[in-house]
Design a protein that fits this description.
binds magnesium ion, eight-stranded mixed β-sheet, binds guanosine-5'-triphosphate
């Protein structure tokens, strides 16, 4: 294996140099921007330093009949040494490559790759609202995109930059030990509460109480009670805002009180107002708006708007396991400017839930792009 460094004004020129020198099968191991001193050391030209490598065909060692046995053994040892050397070089290159997080890129592939076209395709796959797409598009400077060697590089850089789109959930965001979960029907409110209750109680040893105001849907109370029994936490069902206030008071010694609510259509203002009278009875509390990532973008924007009278302060996205595009998370975060507390990715209680850390969210969203 031959490894060589090349200095050029851009990737195109570097590719030409590499192709001339090492041939079309050469692979790019690394590329970085370097500044070269110009005349009198004043102007510093921007250049790229590209490291490329190519496999060399091992030279066959001719063996002659009649050579002494010791000579044969020597050749065998020297062949084995040569093989080991090549293997070692391959390992070194792979390690370097892994450290950069970049796979090999063939020079011949690179010459046909258009990073701008590829970035457009990634944006389309994310299915973003026009104004959000514009913001994501502006993330890259032209020159930065020019330097991307393949789709994986673009995704890696995009994922790093998307971290800034998310507001971290810090302890300072918590101002109450009462957390209520609201949202449209069937999005996964009760399941998410069960996952959180189990995690807080079983893994963090917190003392949890569960209260539900969903006495409308048949089986809703029973559903939460089953989870409560399994986890070993108290579950209380209440019918009126006054009962809710009392239930919260009764459990004020708990580390956390999780309140489950009935699913409400954002189009039904009367139901949302009724929910408000319940929540107003137990303020201060932290309200989590639970949304299914698979909901149409237009509907998600309407939901966050109609629910805004309930003054929710955090977002939970569910059913991430059921989609190939998580751009809806970006759309809602842009519209609400609120932190994502959790993303759920399956029906399993308590496992299928992940905290909404900006870094993890960016990786999750970009990781889902093919
Ligand atoms: N695939 C998948 N299914 C989920 C997830 N979270 C919840 N579900 C499923 O979604 C369905 C509805 O979940 P619930 O927790 O009852 O939803 P809800 O919001 O409480 O429903 P209502 O109280 O009727 O409004 C159940 O079948 C859950 O197992 C998830 O992250 N992924
Ligand atoms: Mg429910």
């Amino acid at each position: 294996m031959r490894i060589k460094k090349y200095l050029a004004y851009d990737m195109k020129e570097a590719c030409q140099l590499i192709r001339q020198d090492l041939g079309p099968d050469a692979v790019i191991i690394n590329s970085k921007e370097v500044r070269q001193k110009g005349i009198l050391g004043f102007m510093k030209a921007r250049m790229v330093e590209v490291t490329a490598a190519v496999d060399e065909i091992p030279v066959e060692k001719p063996t002659q009949q009649g050579v002494k046995e010791s000579q044969v053994n020597n050749d065998k040892v020297s062949n084995e040494m040569q093989e080991m050397k090549e293997l070692l070089q391959q390992i070194i290159v792979k390690e370097r490559n892994a450290a950069n997080g970049k796979p090999f890129v063939k020079v011949s592939d690179l010459e046909e790759f258009d990073p701008h076209e590829e970035f457009k395709k990634i944006l389309q796959e994310l299915d973003l609202l026009p104004e959000v797409e514009k913001r994501v598009e502006d993330i890259f400077q032209k020159q930065e995109l020019d330097e991307c060697l393949n789709r994986i590089h673009i995704k890696d850089k995009l994922s790093e930059k998307l971290v800034d789109f998310f507001i971290p959930v810090t302890k300072a965001n918590h101002n109450s030990n009462v957390l209520a979960f609201i949202g449209p029907t069937g999005v996964g409110k009760t399941t998410t509460i069960a996952k959180l209750a189990a995690n807080f109680a079983l893994y963090h040893g917190l003392n949890i109480a569960l209260i539900t105001i969903d006495t409308y849907r048949i089986g809703a109370v029973a559903q939460l009670k089953i989870y409560g029994d399994i986890i070993g936490v108290t579950v209380e069902a209440v019918m009126t805002p006054q009962e809710l206030k009392l239930a919260v008071k009764n459990h004020e010694d708990c580390d956390l009180i999780l309140v489950d609510t009935a699913g409400r259509s954002s189009k039904n203002a009367e139901q949302i107002n009724e929910l408000k009278t319940f929540l107003d009875a137990i303020r201060p509390l932290e309200i989590y708006l639970v949304l299914d990532v698979n909901t149409k973008n237009k509907d998600l924007i309407a939901i966050v708007d109609k629910y805004s009278i309930l003054k929710y302060s955090k977002l939970v996205f569910t059913k991430a396991d059921e989609t190939y595009s998580l751009g809806s998370i970006l759309n809602v975060v842009e519209a609400t400017e609120l932190p994502v507390a959790y993303v759920t990715n399956g029906q399993n209680v308590p496992d299928d839930i992940i905290p909404g850390e900006p870094d993890g969210l960016a990786k999750l969203i970009i990781g889902e792009v093919e």
